[in-house]
Amino acid sequence: MFASDVLVAQNIGFAIIATIMVIGALRVVTTNNVVHAALWLVVVLAGAAAQYVLLAAEFVAITQVLVYIGAVMVLFLFGTMLTRTRIGAESDLNNKNLFFGIFVALTLFVAMAMALNSEFGSEKMPANPAVATTQEISDQIFGPYLLPFWALSFVLLAAVVGAIVLARRD
Amino acid sequence: MLVNQFLLLAAVLFCIGVYGVIARKNAVLVLMSIELILNSVNINLLAFSMRNGSLDGHTFALYIIAIAAAEVGVGLAMVLLMYRNRRSIDLDELSEMKG
Amino acid sequence: MEVISNHNWALTVGTFLPLVGVLIMLFIPKAEEALIKSVAIATAIATLAVGIYTMVQFDFGNAGAMQFVAKHDWISVIKSSYYIGIDGISLPLYLLSMVITVLVMIYSWDHVPSPGNPKAFFSLMLILQTGMAGTFIARDLILFFVFFELVLLPMYFMIGVWGGENRQYASLKFFLYTMFGSALMLVAFLALFFKTGAESFSIPFLIEQGVNISRTTQIWIFAGMFVGFAVKVPMFPFHTWLPDAHTQAPTQGSVILAAVLLKLGTYGFVRIAIPVLPEAARAWAPYIGGLAVIGIIYGSLGCLAQTDMKRLIAFSSVAHMGFVMLGISTLTSFGMNAAMFGMVAHGLITGMLFFVAGSVKERYHTLEIKRISGMLLQMPKLGWILGFCAMASLGLPGLAGFWGEFPAILSAYQPAPGLSVNVFRTYMVIAAIGTVFAAAYLLWLFQRIAFGEPAAEFAAGHGHDEDIHDVNKFEWIAWTPLLIAIVVFGVYPQLMFKVLDPAVGVTLKAFGG
Amino acid sequence: MLAEATEAALKSGWFLEHAWAIPVIPALSFFLIIFFGKRMPKKGSEFGVASMIGALIFAGGAAFQWIQRVNGAPEEAFVSPVVKTWTWWQNSGITFGIGQHVDGLTVAILLVVAFISTLVQVYSLEYLRGDRRYTHFFASLTLFSAGMLNMVVAENMIQLILGWEIMGLCSFLLIGHWWEEGANSRAALKAFFTTRTGDIGLLTGTAILFFSANEWTTKTLGVSGFSIRGLSSWALSGDPGHAAITMGAIALFIAAIGKSGQFPLHTWLPDAMAGPTPVSSLLHSSTMVVAGVFLVARLYPVFFKGMDILGGSANFIVVIGGITIVIAALLAFVQTDIKKVLAYSTVSQLGYMMMGLGAGAWLPAVFHIFTHAFFKACLFLGAGSISHSSSHHSFEMKKDMGGLRKFMPITFGTWIVSTLALCGVFPFSGFFSKDEIIDNVGHNGYNVFMIVGLAGAFLTAAYMTRATYLTFFGQPRGASAGEHHEEESQDSHAVHDDRADHGHDTHDSHDAHASHGPRESGWLITVPLVILATLALGSGFLNAAPFGEKWENFKKWVEPSAEVVNPTGIAYVVGGVGEARVASDTPTDSTVVEGEDSTVVEDEAHSEMLEATTASGEDTHSSESVHHESPCGTETPEQGVCAAPQLSHAPFKWSKAGLSMLIVLAGFLLSLFVCIQLYEKKNEKFVGLTERNKALGFGYKLLVNKYYLDVLYEKIIVRSIAHPIAGAVYWFNQKVLDGVVNGAGTTAKTIAGWVYRNIDQRVVDGAVNGTGSVAQGAGSALRPVQSGKVNQYGALLFGAAAIGALVLVIVNT
């Protein structure tokens, strides 16, 4: 019965966070203000981090907070500033693909929803999953997934170099 | 706690992201939408790894975060460049770059 | 069984050798045109040599059986295997494709159409050769399909890049049309695969299992294949891509198209559709026959309405393939033999006609029948060759065309048991009338172009003199084999019937024909 | 031991065994001429003449040995043909042969064809000297003869078709020999096209007969259903259903109509005069047009049963023949071109042959082929000689001839002889053939057609008199009077001269005419004329019924006796086995040519037939004595097979002959009278009669317009097919079918556009740009991505993905 309380709590938590995330996401793609959009994105990302916690992935959650909300958002804001997009409302951020976008999004959602329902109708998560420790993850990364890790590091390197090459004014 | 609830959430985010990519005109906003998509993927990964009780999901989620960072970096650099060349980051105006 | 062994390497090599040639050509700089050409031609000749070796090794006493069989796992996931073999039906077409490629290349030595770039042109022809040869030896549906489609792309580029004014429309039409056909065909193949227990795509297996499929299902599957093959043949009413493709394609393209590509469709009927689905074949035969005779009359009338020589020849293909399909639709050995013979004959003759048309175009810079006349006075040799081909094409006995035409008509008098005799006898009469039309349009063409006085604009001293020269040496080299073959097979058809007949018998086991 | 006796009794000889070589020789020389002709001193003509002489020698040898064979055999015995086959093609394991089928009919026609061809070639040496396509001409001429000869020796229908069509082709080339003239090439086209129309019948008829007969022939005779021998026996065997054999016969006869210029397909024949005169003479005397008649004579049993000949009522063949005689003869009256007169006379003579065959007068008809060849060839060559030497290559009797008898005695003499022969005056050859036909037609109960025949004889006499008068009597006119008409240079022949490579010498000859007017032709022309005239006079005595049995050699040698013979075929009564060996073993001697052989098929047939053989042996002995009761043709033989239907022959009566003589004489006199009145005295009662008298005027108009048949064929049928119908079909093709195809594309586009204009735009652009860039050789499928706004393509991508996903999901659930 105790466990069940936890479950209920989890569910309620999930529901709240999910709602916030969805609203945030919607605002991101609808707001007319780039900066607002960025801030709403923060909300979504934070929500995502929270979900990770619910999914017993502390390390990822933390990384999410650090990298995304820390670095990426800052990047975005810088980008916004550097390109001197008007802070504040802007009229035409949307192009005439609006309706097509909605059409596609809905289609996709319907497709996925159907697929998911038919696949995992009411399958439950394992009751009390083992929380993944950082050590386990590091074992994973530097164990079986070493090669992808290297590849990734190269990608990052390339990205850094590329970013510099592109952005540097001369 | 259902598996589906996470997956559905991810689906919703994904679709919203797609909508953003399609419907937005401002480069920065498009990048943001892409971030949304990536996150929804992450959620999926973690959900599944919890379901299967394996850690691969985590690993990949991390990788994705890293890649997202890189992508945003490059992306914004390009936006910057674009802005420098023609004082706007309106994607619709990219259309005259026919090879 | 391993892919290559001492006794069955010939087919694999013969099929893929051209690709080796392409690889070599990749490393030759574009500028080295002569080198590129010679490498390509050398490859083609080497391929032909392998083909001839195959023929020499071929056991003619046992032409009905598959020979040089090679079988090896290929895509085990979908139970498709690399399964090839050759029998009396495949052999002539297999060789035909090789011969035609060689001759076309020799012809191309000094006839590379604009915008030049022989490297690409010759490579495409080699790839085409692989596709064609492969189709004729494949014994596995997926393999067959792959080769069948492999043929599309080079031809698409040939028409689209080296074609005439309206090439983009023509090439796109050709591509999409055929694609549409083969899509349905693929579906039919898959249906066949699953209906036979999803065990294998190998044709012999399907022939065993096919009979167990319920009649209605058979009919539906056959419908899919029918469209796929009929588009390629092309049968009325799926033929409309042909005139455009032929008219726009460069000479070499037209020749290969007419000589070999059209045969892929009919070959598909003979090799796959009919033996695998006998019930459906019986059910479909009257309709196929009907479309065939419509095609005969219709194509001939289309010819009579043409003002462009090449387009006329293209329409004549519709009529001739009509005879082939009529033969096939009777499901009798007479019909099948006629059809198979007709395919080869049509390949030789119409190929030759397109060669001539190309040379005429090159001389006069036009193919308007109205504008050309008196060719026999200016270029007697070319003129008489045209006359010869016209005669062969209208089915004159003693030339190859006759043996594809007459037995087909004959067979329609008595179709396979279970088919309506009256219907097919009607077809017979209509087809016989078609031969008169054939004479009409071909002789009309010949009379208009070759007889009479040269047209004023092309008469001597009107600036065309340097273009208007008689057959040159490359043309002779490229044409002589075809001309000889037309006569030889016409005078002594047994050469081919001896090979075809047993294989046809095997194909028709299910019909007691 | 019976076998030895038979072989001793029934001689076969080297020439008979090698009759197949007769067509082969000219065929080979055709290739020689094509490839080396131009380099030879005589421009290839030597090959042609030599090969024809070779063929003639072979034919002569064959004929001689055949006569020996017949004489060697006992009275009334069936003398079996010499048959050989080699494998030609096969189907479902059964091989079909090519080879020879030599019997009386064959050797007779072979002889004529080879003979006439030789003379015509010799004649052409002079006639076409200096022609720009001298070599081509001889090539075609030789191939033409090869075709006819092949058709005559044909062992089976396919081989027959081969020769038949080769003749068609060569007639195309020869008639259109001077194709610079549009008219000539059109005439050539017309000839080929008309005969080809008849060939529908040939193809279908062959098919019908093959499938009806094949089973029986294979079982009984061990030959395929194509084989002449097989078909003949089958027709009389009582096996065929009436419908099948009738359909087959009708179909084949349609082919004969086309080839032999019978009504209503005779219209190509006069136009065929556009060719050089030697060609006309060859076409109209012994080859081409005879082919149809020969077909009927060759497969006579088939027609006999199929058309129910001698069944008492009139049949298809006899009716067509009768009509042809009269209409053609009438047309001959209104011609001013001498060659056209002869052309129509040919048509009407062919009518006689057909009528004879249709009325059961097989032998006279065949004999008429034989004799007609000589005098008709002679007449044509005579006309050629006139135009060549006297009238500047003009054939206009009224304009350019007249009074030539003084200048061209030899030509005149031969002409008169041949004319008398053609009219059937005793004792010229025509009398013995044509009169026999009329006689037998009446004898067999076709009285109406006997009258038609007599009327034909009258008309023949009349129009030939007219032609002779206009040509040789009266005063020289036009060219033959030495004037040089300008319009004659419009004449095709003149045109070709002007462009001839060696044009000058012919020009010289031109001027020669102009200077010293008409003169006799050179020996290369006159010698053939004389020879032919002699034969026109003499050949009749080969079968001179009036002088009793022993003069009827042609009958003895050519007519197959209607005996029941044992199924191994082809054997003459006393013991078929041995002869069967002669007939069908011979190929195995010559199998060097080809591996396995049709004998394989035949032999087991024999083995199963052996017991029947001995049985039928003596049974046929008995029937030997009383051959008039031979059941063949009337009822079916109990055992054994028939090779020919039993025909009876009209006993010769001078009274009947005298009657026809009188009629012919009347024709001469009346026509002569009219001619003198009309052309000599210019008697106003006659001149312009057609203008004054309505009925005559109408008839005249009808004749001048050839009964409007040409109008019907060319203006109405051909024109309508060639233009409106074909045009309509093509319109249908472009507008409807293509419309459907393109329509499908466009509708797809518009629908997409209706859903969302942008996708459509992109797709089409994309596709077009795509192909465009491909066309520049630099394209790649991704090309469109760079051609438009980035997120448009994002949109597309996701859109596609979304729809794809949805479809997948729906399919899978």
Mean pLDDT across every amino acid position of chain B? 83
Q: Which consecutive residue ranges of chain D, at least 5 long each, have pLDDT under 50?
A: 1-8, 484-515, 569-628, 756-765, 768-788
Largest sheet of chain D: 2 strands, antiparallel
Most extensive interface, chain pair and sizes = A-B, 89 and 70 residues
Quick one: how many beta strands of chain D? Answer: 4
Q: What shape does the CA trace of chain B take?
A: elongated
Spatial separation of the terminal alpha carbons of chain D: 89 Å
Structural category of chain B is mainly alpha
Give the count of helical stretches of chain B.
Answer: 3
Amount of beta strand of chain B: under 5%
- Please give the radius of gyration of chain B in angstroms: 17 Å
Q: What is the topology, as strand order, of the major beta sheet of chain D?
A: 1-2
Oligomer: heterotetramer
Describe how the helices and strands are arranged:
The complex is a heterotetramer of chains A (170), B (99), C (513) and D (813).
Chain A: H1 2-30, H2 34-54, H3 58-82, H4 98-120, H5 134-142, H6 146-167
Helix pairs in contact in A: 1-2, 2-3
Chain C: H1 9-26, H2 33-57, E1 67-75, E2 80-86, H3 90-108, H4 118-137, H5 141-162, H6 167-195, H7 203-210, H8 215-232, H9 241-248, H10 251-276, H11 278-304, H12 309-330, H13 333-364, H14 375-378, H15 380-393, H16 400-413, H17 421-450, H18 473-491, H19 494-507
Antiparallel strand pairs in C: 1-2
Helix pairs in contact in C: 1-2, 1-4, 2-3, 2-4, 3-4, 3-10, 3-13, 3-18, 4-5, 5-6, 5-10, 6-8, 6-9, 8-10, 8-11, 9-12, 10-12, 10-13, 11-12, 11-17, 12-13, 12-16, 12-17, 13-15, 13-16, 13-18, 13-19, 15-17, 16-17, 16-18
Chain D: H1 2-9, H2 14-17, H3 21-36, H4 45-72, E1 82-91, E2 94-102, H5 104-127, H6 134-153, H7 157-175, H8 182-220, H9 228-236, H10 242-259, H11 268-271, H12 277-285, H13 289-298, H14 300-306, H15 316-333, H16 338-358, H17 362-389, H18 397-400, H19 409-423, H20 429-443, H21 447-472, H22 492-499, H23 503-516, H24 523-538, H25 553-558, E3 564-565, H26 576-589, H27 598-625, E4 641-642, H28 654-680, H29 689-692, H30 694-704, H31 709-755, H32 757-775, H33 790-812
Antiparallel strand pairs in D: 1-2, 3-4
Helix pairs in contact in D: 1-26, 3-4, 3-6, 4-5, 4-6, 5-6, 5-12, 5-17, 5-24, 6-7, 7-8, 8-9, 8-10, 9-14, 10-13, 10-14, 12-17, 13-16, 13-17, 15-16, 15-21, 16-17, 16-20, 16-21, 17-19, 17-20, 17-24, 19-21, 19-24, 20-21, 21-28, 26-27, 31-32
